[in-house]
Design a protein that fits this description.
The structure holds 2 protein chains of 2 kinds.
Chain A lengths: L10 E10 L2 E11 L4 E5 L6 H8 L7 E6 L2 E2 L4 H7 E4 L11 H11 L4 H14 L15 H13 L5 E5 L7 H17 L2 E6 L2 H7 L2 E6 L2 E6 L1 H8 L5 H9 L9 H13 L2
Parallel strand pairs in A: 3-8, 3-9, 6-7, 7-8
Antiparallel strand pairs in A: 1-2, 1-4, 4-5, 9-10
Chain B lengths: L25 H22 L2 H24 L9 H19 L1 H11 L1 H6 L5 H29 L8 H29 L2 H17 L12 H8 L2 H14 L5 H22 L6
Helix pairs in contact in B: 1-6, 2-3, 2-6, 3-6, 3-7, 3-10, 4-7, 6-7, 6-11, 7-8, 7-10, 7-11, 10-11
The chains are: A alpha/beta, B mainly alpha.
């Protein structure tokens, strides 16, 4: 089935709701990400950020509400929507048994990049992610920051219109985090629409044009970091904004799965 | 340097009509996905060949110890064929099955590492992903089968040198292993953890192996085991291999039809269950 695309925001959710059994993970989310902006989805563990992303990337079905990528209804046209999106999950997900180049080439094939362009396209994204020298080493020898850049290369090889990153710097040391930030700024300058979830306020402040605060499945506030801080007071930081909307639930949020996932990432990074 | 899709500019991409890349025809993407996953498996084997050799030890022991001993005992009536010759197709099929039945562990690892989520976000229909993974497992199984065939030849097993028959035998191994890989992917989608999959895998491999014609002719089995062997795809794979490699009587059309039907059924069920892994 094919759905004709319509003009509108790059990413749009309206009335999005998703339940895991009795637990409402996403509770009527309305969200509009403008084309070309870097948009941060902030919130404590269990806020519903990853579930929202999983719906947008077609990993979870749209049960209630609507989710659109560049006007395409992801529930009606999942295959077309996937062609427009690059996705980097929370875990360090490169295949350690393959070289950097093989990791990227696999995704070039899966996205039907034409054979005559494939090798150049793989070289291009590896170069942009500053991985030329490591391209022919198996990914198990990469540092955490290198793996993250490799994943960005995988996500970019099909030249996506929208990039969705779930906690891209979780578990990275400051050096690894800085190299990932550098590459994200390059993409920002290039005008790619980026949706990013993060726990790190510094990251949101540094990279995002606008952010939304999500808590208990709902969007609590949306705006530029500066605007949101100004609403609280002249001395307020984004961390104050986060605490204001998430309240004291920081400790109670999240599930065992989140903890396990974070520990797995930490283990993989050594 | 730009990452934007051809013919589009990021700044106004949402406001302009989106030029969607044309989707390739179904046969093309199915073939492309199978090729991709098989190539990835070959690349992994090339980087680390130790598993190929260590996994070949068990089937080699079956041939060397069990096969040689029973060949001397003449305890199992196999007609005019030596027991070691009779056993070799059974061990080839068993070795492929053992590799494939535990392939789901790799997919659970891919789930834990986030790789599966990324694969499911590519424009790859679930059925194509499962088919690609199943054939990738059969590549790993097939490469092991080659090691067993070489060993069998060294032990003096007589099998055909006709390249067409060898090719058809390879196809039987690939289809059989691909089916058992879909079974493993289905169990992975239900069991959700490596530990449970290991347990279930171990629980089903021996019954599948012993209730087939891999070790002894079906005629020697008690009726209830014989009934099970009729619905056991491993028996049809062994039948096809014996027919092709040793020239024993058989019906290749039935054998290949059953293997193909089992594979299609396996892909259908696994494709429906696999997405549970990432929810």
């Amino acid at each position: 089935m094919s759905t004709a695309p319509v003009p509108g925001p790059a990413i749009e959710c309206s009335g999005l709701r998703y339940r895991f059994g009795d637990h409402v993970a996403v509770d009527g989310v309305d969200l509009a990400v403008r084309s070309g902006e870097m948009f941060g989805l902030l919130g404590p563990n269990g806020a519903g950020k990853t579930t929202t992303i999983r719906i947008l990337t077609t990993l979870l079905p749209v049960v209630e509400g609507e989710a659109r990528i560049l006007g395409l209804d992801v529930s009606q046209s999942p295959m077309q929507a996937r062609r427009l999106v690059g996705y980097v999950p929370q875990q360090l997900s490169a295949d350690g048994q393959l070289t950097g180049r093989e990791n990227v080439a696999m995704f070039a094939r899966l996205f039907d990049v034409p054979r005559r362009e494939r090798a150049d396209r793989v070289d291009e994204v590896l170069h942009v992610m500053n991985l030329d020298d490591a391209a022919d080493r198996v990914a198990s020898t990469f540092s955490g920051g290198m793996v993250r850049r490799l994943e960005l290369a995988q996500a970019l090889v099909n030249r996506p219109r929208v990039l969705i990153l779930d906690e891209p710097t979780i578990g990275l040391d400051p050096v690894g985090r800085d190299t990932v930030w550098d590459r994200l700024r390059l993409l920002q300058a290039d005008g790619i629409t980026v949706l990013i979830t993060t726990h790190y306020m510094e990251e949101a402040e540094e990279l995002c044009d606008r952010v939304s605060l999500m808590h208990r499945g709902r969007i609590r506030a949306v705006g530029t970091p500066t605007d949101l801080e100004a609403r609280l007071g002249p001395e307020a930081t984004l961390e104050d904004v986060f605490r204001f909307y998430a309240g004291d639930s920081l400790e109670e949020g999240g599930e065992l799965r989140d903890v396990r996932s974070t520990r797995r990432v930490a283990r993989r990074l050594g | 340097m730009t990452f934007v899709a051809h013919g589009a500019s990021h700044a106004d991409s949402a406001d302009a009509a989106i030029a969607l890349p044309p989707s390739p025809p179904a046969w093309k993407w199915l073939g492309s996905r199978i090729m991709t996953f098989c190539l990835v498996e070959i690349q992994k084997i090339r980087h680390d060949r130790t598993e190929l050799l260590t996994r070949a030890i068990q089937p080699a022991l079956w041939l060397l110890i069990f096969g040689e001993t029973f060949d001397r005992l003449h305890a199992i009536p196999t007609g005019h064929i030596d027991y070691l010759d009779f056993l070799t197709p059974g061990i080839l099929a068993q070795s492929g099955m053992f590799v494939a039945v535990f392939y789901g562990i790799q997919v659970i690892w891919e789930r834990d590492a986030g790789v599966l989520a990324k694969l499911l976000v590519t424009p790859t229909p679930r059925a194509a992903l499962v088919t690609g993974k199943a054939f990738a497992a059969s590549i790993r199984a097939f490469s092991q089968v080659i090691v067993i065939l070489v060993l069998a030849r060294i032990l003096g097993v007589h099998f055909t040198a006709n390249p067409l028959f060898l090719l058809a035998a390879a196809l039987a191994v690939v289809l059989g292993s691909a089916f058992f890989a879909t079974l493993s992917l289905t169990i992975a989608g239900l069991a959700m953890t490596r530990e449970r999959l290991m347990g279930i895998g171990q629980a089903i491999t021996m019954p599948l192996f012993f209730a087939s014609n891999a070790l002894y002719p079906v005629a020697l089995m008690p009726p209830w085991i014989r009934a099970f062997s009729v619905i056991n795809p491993l028996s049809y794979e062994v039948n096809a291999l014996r027919r092709l490699l040793l020239g024993t009587p058989g019906n290749l059309l039935v054998d290949f039809s059953v293997l193909l039907f089992a594979l299609v059924l396996g892909v259908t069920v696994a494709a429906a269950i696999l997405p549970r892994l990432v929810r």
